[in-house]
Design goal:
Strand 3 and strand 4 form a beta hairpin. With 256 residues, the protein is α+β, with helices and mostly antiparallel strands.
């Protein structure tokens, strides 16, 4: 809750930066005062007065843990997230338009700082009606772009990330007509060989399970606000993410 007194005709919003932006703008939330009726685009323009505009191009913005367009009108007390492209790794596919009238979806989603027990989660996903279980087990490798990796650190806008993961799991289950979806992502420090993200899709038929699993990981890697910092023997860097889908990212002309 924002307690600062502000003049009439003004609003105050709380701005959070993530990933590489947090390194540049600072780890603490900033309270920014704007005129009533100010939009997301106005806020970004205000921030660009103090920070390089190039740093703000290509980002997405959330308002109260939901993606927001540049034209979104801000309200007093809003929490605004500045989201650089997320951890990257593939081009998102497109979910089918097929709709199914089925019982409530069987979905497990989680963010955890504990090691992910892949074998246990895969075993728990299986049922007698399944003809296929497809698993994506993303693990930390010992090198990246010719540099030896020591470890990775994952951080997230946790409330928003968990909501986004749940929405993706629900959409995958209904759109691809699969019975079960598990999506678990690790946060914090990960060593080489550890699982960073596990996706399990169980279905009566293999084609739907493969398609759903591929769509889930590709879409997660471009839309869910989780960022990866890679530490090498010769330095550390935030991983460059894939550009946000057009409907989520700010256009160049939104950063004046």
């Amino acid at each position: 809750m924002l307690l600062s007194m502000i003049p009439a005709g003004m609003i105050q919003v709380r701005v959070l930066a993530f990933g590489a932006l947090k390194d540049a703008l600072g780890p603490r939330a900033a309270e920014v005062a704007l005129c009533e009726g100010a939009t997301v685009s106005d806020l970004v323009a205000h921030l660009s007065l103090n920070y390089p505009r190039a740093m703000l191009r290509g980002i997405a913005v959330s308002v109260n843990a939901e993606y927001a367009a540049a034209t979104h009108v801000l309200s007093h007390g809003d929490e605004v997230g500045l989201l650089p492209p997320v951890s990257g790794g593939g081009t998102p596919g497109t979910a089918n338009a097929q709709e199914k009238s089925e019982p409530a979806p069987e979905i497990i989603t989680n963010l955890t700082r504990e090691p992910i027990d892949a074998a246990k989660l895969v075993a728990e996903a299986k049922q007698g009606a399944d003809g296929a279980v497809v698993v994506f087990d993303g693990i930390v490798r010992n090198n990246s772009r010719g540099r030896r990796t020591l470890h990775l650190d994952y951080e997230a806008y946790e409330e928003m990330a968990l909501n986004q993961i749940r929405e993706l799991a629900q959409k995958a289950r209904t759109s691809f007509a699969v019975r079960h979806v598990t999506v678990v992502h690790r946060l914090g420090r990960l060593e080489v060989g550890e699982t960073s993200v596990l996706i399990v899709v169980a279905s009566a038929h293999r084609a739907q399970a493969f398609d759903a699993c591929r769509w889930l990981i590709d879409t997660l890697k471009t839309t869910v606000p989780i960022w990866k910092k890679e530490t090498f023997v010769d330095g550390a860097v935030w991983a460059a993410g894939e550009p946000f889908p057009a409907e989520l990212g700010l256009e160049a002309n939104d950063v004046r």
